[in-house]
Amino acid sequence: MQDIVGNLHLHTIASDGTGTYDEVASAAARAGLDFIMYTDHNTWTDGVEGWYYDPDTGRDILRLMGQEVNDPNLEPEHNHLLCHFVSSDLNGVAADPQKLIDTAMARGGLCFLAHPLERPGYDRASQIYPWLSWEVAGYTGIELWNAMSDTKWNLRTFPRALLGAYLPQRGLSAPFPEALAKWDELLATGQKVVAIGNSDAHAMSFSWGPLTRTVYPYEHLFRAVNTHLLLADSLAFEVDQARLQIYNALQLGHCFVSYDLIVSPKGFTFTGRSGSEQAIMGDTLSLQSEAVLRVASPYPARLRLLKDGQLLMETTGQELEWQTVEPGVYRVEAYRQFWGQQRGWVFTNPIYVVKQ
Ligand SMILES: [Zn+2]
Ligand SMILES: [Zn+2]
Fold this sequence. Notes:
By secondary structure, this protein is of the alpha+beta class. The protein has helices at residues 21-30, 97-106, 147-154, 158-166, 177-187, 218-222, 239-252, and strands spanning 2-7, 35-38, 50-54, 59-69, 81-84, 110-113, 141-146, 194-198, 205-208, 211-214, 225-231, 255-259, 269-274, 277-280, 284-287, 291-307, 310-324, 328-338, 341-348, 351-355. The chain binds zinc ion (2 copies).
């Protein structure tokens, strides 16, 4: 499998970000990303999609266009929806979350509930924008780890904010436990719910008296929380083909969420086998007497295997193996020590083990 890494939630000057399309793409190329998806608020721009050559690094990066849609008439503006692969305006249906999801999906898109659970931060960041309309159905998945939500919480007092502005490595911990619990709760209903992780990069500046600081510039954020996609073949040079590869990997949940700044998790695998059947993360595996689940990590980590939200096994190392005769939703979390604490490193999509 090919492991490509990208960011699926970020903002430019087309909404409330601070970088142009090209500046953001260059920052992503410097950070080593393979693709980015622009998701400005309630806006769509034609003609940006395609390969972008970054002259500084000599790297090509694939740019795709999505949007983050919400109802601007709500106060506060909760229910943010990431709509990927939808090349048209969705503002007309933004006020009705179910209609918005149905419309985006009917137009060949994918939908992810953005920063579905948030915690208040410091000062201007005290406002939260969670997902509240949990009665909706038919969406692709959720944004399990949003770097901006996590940072906002980690920098929730003035001393923390000041320290975090100069030591950004301290700004990220892991997906919120309540986000992991909510994901498990949704998975328990029998639906497939794909998890992604993103920067939600804006690269805003803050001033403290004489000090002005761009808190979390784009390049830093693109080295942080990302989504790795597993592809059967290398990403095609032909744009429509590459776009379809990314669409398929996301739709199938052939992906994992990571905090790349700790160390690159490229090559991390979670696979299953039962009789002649094989599965990777996101797949359904039919149980034929028993199944073997395997985790292989490029670096040692605290590996945790969960079934239906409950911890089954925990080990520190590069491998984990588990035999089971039980159907269930199996997923893996990996943590590593970084800047003085255990931080989330890898969160895989589940393997759905079902009775034959
Ligand atoms: Zn948002
Ligand atoms: Zn956003």
